[in-house]
Amino acid sequence: MSFPIDLYCTNTVGDVTSQSFFGSPVTGRMTKTTSWFACWKLGAPHAGKNSVWYYTKGDVVVNNPGQQAWGYMPANALGTTKAPFPGLRKCTWG
User: Which of 24, 43, 84, 87 sits CB 3.0–4.6 Å from 17 for a disulfide?
Assistant: First the structure.
């Protein structure tokens, strides 16, 4: 896949999940507090009072090495003021 635009911003240290909801398998973990995010999609509501989740690649693989730590973090884990972030594309898959 290619992502023509991405978002580079601060984030909390935390889990990256295979789907955009809590309880989804953890694929990776963010260990750094500045990362890039490729796109967004709607998922489960979270503490950010919305249901926007961002697709990214974790810094460390936790499970399923074939997925290479790719997955989602809830918008409240990112240091942005709007969700979805203006100009960042919606993920093209379900």
Answer: 24
| Rounded-to-integer distance, Cα 71 and Cα 8, Å | 16
Cα Rg for the chain, rounded, in angstroms? 12
Q: How far apart are CA 22 and CA 7, in angstroms?
A: 22
Tokens 């955009």 sit at which residue?
20
Provide the residue-wise pLDDT of the chain in tens; the chain has 94 residues.
Answer: 666 678 999 999 999 999 999 999 999 999 999 999 999 999 999 999 999 999 999 999 999 999 999 999 999 999 999 999 999 999 998 6
Contact yes or no for 75/50 (Cβ under 8 A): yes
What does the buried/exposed string (b/e) look like for 8-44 if buried means 16 or more CB atoms within 10 Å of the residue's CB?
eeebeeebbbbbbeeebebbbebeeeebebbbbbebe
